[in-house]
């Protein structure tokens, strides 16, 4: 029972203290006058009565009522119900105040009224919260006063103060105050549940669901919350509601529902709070930065930016919101239904209030389910002491990462919850019941909102019942004031009377006396044992958070442990990696601790070294993934084990496992140790009481009983019995418990010292500081080596001891343990004496332990190191040497998944081995860590010259815990090495490795690269001149260099016109030039300075080399001019070879000999070249043999040149006359080129197109009709208009060998015009072609004028004629020029990408193909990265421009490509155009020539773009040549039958162009090569035959041995012009970028791959012994490990290999593969020939018999001599142009390796009579002597293709004149006979006559001697 009201107070306005703006209140009367003992009078009531301040008002206001809440010092709440009304006061100070008022207000007339009203408050102070009762009581008192009822106020107040009611229990009490009133008070059944009335429902109505949830989470996670409202009562209600929904947690911070204005500074307090403030003070709340403001009137919640509210974990948040919306807005569910149910009104407000609270109760039941299983009971007597194991709770709920729950569990409210609800024996309430019995139901119903609603309604009903236990409430009868008191002035005048204190006091005293005599009310409090509910473990498992396939993993873990203890170490080793992987899962870690436990006997398990090592490794791996909280209890389970497993070291010393598992964060976490300590104490105390209970009957119960009883149940039982025990036994139990705790504390002091003291206490590894020093940071501290070792940095320097450090390790550990002991002992009530004893013991324990550790450390050092795998040494190339020997490293897996076993297959990486640095490569060689693939060897290497990026990384290896330093090396051969150095590698060694690597990667000079230093010692000496044995070369190079130097020097000084070659970094180049200047001899030869067109005699001998080199062979082949010995020119040739640049004075980067128009003198050239960047003026590089159109290349123009170039000649120019003349000369030059074209000279007049068209008509095939003009469309595309083009663009023409007739096709009939044929019909000529000159577009697109008859207008037609010369130029450079209407050339502006773009694109391409780490981000998939790199885009653009140029050349226009500096994109385009247009360049010889001519001679800057030297390091790697090779690869894919070389050949070049193994791709131009004496030495004698200087020689040599470079599908068509598709959808990623062979490293260094270094002379007979005789029929082929081409060679290669093997077995001299292949092709061809007359189902040995995917763009019916059958003949001789009868029997092959023309293969042929075998007649046969294949073959007739027999010349011993024998032909001279003697037999021959016989003998003899 308790008093309804403690105090009644009357507070009024303090008239004496008025003044200033603020009035004050004062207490006029209070009853009772002296404080109650149990409840002192609260201070500051007068502030709370008028929270906005005491003020007088001119008008009377209505009476108001609200309840404020005050909290006293014991944090008890007092409810102050304030009833305020207004009374008149006279204004006595009116006259005095007038002046002051007038000062303040501008209008003194507005005087204060004579009558003012002052507030007066009646206040009830109570500890109960019965708002309505208080409102009624105070209202009654006021009514008595106002209506002057005849009841003394003293009686009413006396009755009020003496009214006593029960607190809870659900009783009903009727009270009356003696004024004829009656009220019924209902008390709640259970006072632990809050009473909320309707306040919760109101709060949700005011703010809405989401806002309230924000507030709810903010309150639980301890944020500051401020409510604003105009109404005080609403503030109180809102605060009450917020507290109600937090149940079962209680809010324990500042709680002030109504804060007076005077106390607003409280809001800046640092602690959390819930406060309400009148909106009147809104402005003052604006500057609060960290307060969440809820405006009840506006319905908003404002969360400041700096405040982060952690919300409920999903899916709980979602469920809660759904449930709330179903309570508050049930109509939402059915809002969309066609027939909504009639009644979906929300419940009445007071019911709805309870439903909302039920939702929150349901929410808490889910949040806290199973909390009782994580309580540790440490003491039972005298008071239960209970701790909550937070980490275990979070771990089992799988919410350890959850922000919200973490904060809630750390908060004060939860601490209160544990101390209040923790004790196991106490009264229970609704929440306990929910947790214990309903959890299962809650979980099952989670998904079904309707079931959830049912449950919530049930809970709501219980809550409602608790507040309103009686349905029918007796009548209230309370009087109210009769009507507005304002109507009765007399009443309103009387102020509230002063009451008689004595009367009231009498009432109070009387009631108190009565209470004393009354019998004490016995409160029947029902205590019971609190049920725990279902344990947590089940909960989690049903949520399925345990791994699905864990059973298999657990099996692996168990097996491995059993193997270890059974000493089956090999088995264990194999399982180890799988176990370490499995231990990432929680279940496996738990399993490990359980398994290990079984192997511990009497707390000890002694192991041998290897067992110990494995067990420690597993423990470390297990701990490594535990967080510092140890939420899964893994570290806790391992703690007893680390002190159990040990190994014997020498000298009777034992090393325990704990000394090897110290490096984990969990050991420094104070909370972990506390939780461990408490759980151990709980177990011991449980054991203590189990013993006492079980003594009577140990037999029956010992087995089952005690196991079932949990510690909490025991404690509950003990608490219940406690009052019944005697004092002594009580005392005894307390002591027992206390000593149990004490002994555990000692035990833990020991344990902690085990895990905190490092094995080597003398050496501090101060790697990282940990938080041992400060408790707070303990949980987040980061540990490396040992906990305390790293603390020792704080040791005091003054101590002066030698072992200050070790003692400081000890000190820090002692401090840590002391803090721990203090905390747990205080909490668990250990006596002070014991605590002191502990403090003295701890230093001794630590010191003792240090001593044992020292001995262990000493001994453990003597252990032999663990056997590591042997380091494998790689094989080196001839001349390659080690720079650094192998360093043990681990090769880690990167972002490529193939090798890691993720995609199936064995995990080859990570692997352990060594990294080697040689003069040529960086090589890793080792074996995989996974023992299942341990016998495989993993090799990864790349040339050091291809290193593009190197960065340091730190990695943790999967097997150890150490963070290792490592390197990540990226190479432009698409290789990445992530290596981590083993701990045995000193870090300075790693540094040396990096330095050497950099030195080798960026030598000072090109001569430092491997191609030059090969074979020398590995000292990186830079010698400036290499000795050259070939003197004539030397003289040439010397003179050339000197002259060039001088001339350049002179030119630079006088004309200031020469631009140094490297515009990107001029300075470095300049210095290099100066440096070279010194090495040039000083004498000056005057003749060298003359730039005449003859070469001095001393140089003439070397000129042949120049002629050889400068691709003159190609120029001759193309008919572009010859260089005869006398250097005379044949005048009828349109072009000549100019020697103007032979001294490299005109253009440093061009070759010495150039093709220029015949009639342009050299002097003109020297002037023209200045208009072009880098002096690279236009030169001819190819001529179309059919149309005689030429292809020219040059650099872009200098800006000055452009204007003059395009201005019409008569326009006045601004510059000096010189500029003008050069531009004129330029025009002359272009005109000369145009006039060289036969089409130009034939067209004999510009305006007659007919001549032009007719020449072409006659030349072209009939098939031309098939082809639509499409260049215009192509052109549009290339020039980048935005028109939508159909997807068929840039495909080749529809006809096969069609020629473009005339672009506009004027002669097509009207019908054809209307139905355009082919794919091109959809392309409309668009005027929107090019912003620069619309003319070009019109002319090219063949734009028709809109005339009625469809024929173009005459004058317009003139412009439609194609230009003779197209200049492909860069858009950005061609601004401004105007096209002259009668010039014959036209400029096509295209957008060209610059080198930077290529560089960046390549970087991204490398990252896409070889990512450094696996990315989980779906946006970073391979294809996405590939797309972002834009590499394919660049290829597309190059191919597109090239196809356009091919089309133009094919249609008879010449093209000049003049882009950028003429050495990057220009080179790409020009080379691709030649490759597409001319089949010769698609053979081995041709491709080599193409690269030598266009890339090497024309000065593509290989060294600069490849960043081959130190100077180029800054510019970085730009793979322009690789881009070209990729384009060739794309073309190869589309036309596989047109190329003699295979894809592998391209990859080989791509690899070696960056590898620096050969000198071919070094240096930037011929000039530099000559300067170094590199250029001609390849042709000179070879000094070291095993070292190839040129990649071409190497390829040749290899090609002879093996068909690896050869494309078996090669069967070209004559004159085939290829027009590949260039759309990105047609391009494929080159597999060169993605493939890798870990078994042998890259396959491009052929000697290494074959497993032994082959000398160049060895035959390839036993080339691949490993595949020759397979032992087993099966072979597992792993992706990314095996070389597929080697393990599974293609069919033809396989057959060739088999032939070789058989020949070797039979002892024949093995034939070269080429010869075998040619023979087969020859026979094949004959068969095909015969059969294909009528059917083409003939043998399809060569895939090329089929018109395969893209032989040409359309099926093309050849009208051949065979009739109109589709001629699929394979060979080229039998094509439709030559009739079979005319041809010779073609036995030779197209595939000849040496010469490309076939006649040279037949050294000698003719008819001979040959004597048959015994008794056979002589017969005439057609004999062919083949020098190449070294054989004499014979056929029946000349036409015959089927070889009848072969005599191998290798077997011929002699050839001698013979004599006629029996049956010889008659009428022959005797000298016509000769014999051929072979090892097997003698052949007799007879020629037609003696000369003929002599010729045959000589030829055969010469063949023999050659061999």
Q: Residue-averaged pLDDT, rounded?
A: 74
Structural class: alpha+beta
What's the Cα radius of gyration? 51 Å
Number of helices: 62
Order of strands across the main sheet: 25-24-23-22-28-27-26
What are the low-pLDDT stretches, counting only 5+ consecutive residues below 50?
Answer: 94-110, 485-492, 538-548, 695-707, 764-806, 1018-1037, 1043-1102, 1125-1129, 1201-1219, 1244-1269, 1281-1360, 1578-1585, ...
Strand content: 5-15%
Amino-to-carboxy terminus distance: 129 Å
Structure description:
It is built from 62 helices and 42 strands. It starts with a strand and ends with a helix. The strands form eleven sheets. A seven-stranded antiparallel β-sheet has the order 25-24-23-22-28-27-26, covered by helices on one side. Strand 8 and strand 9 form a beta hairpin. About 21% of the residues have low confidence. By secondary structure, it is α+β, with helices and mostly antiparallel strands.
List the main descriptive attributes of the protein structure presented here.
7-stranded antiparallel beta sheet; alpha+beta; 42 strands; elongated; 1907 residues
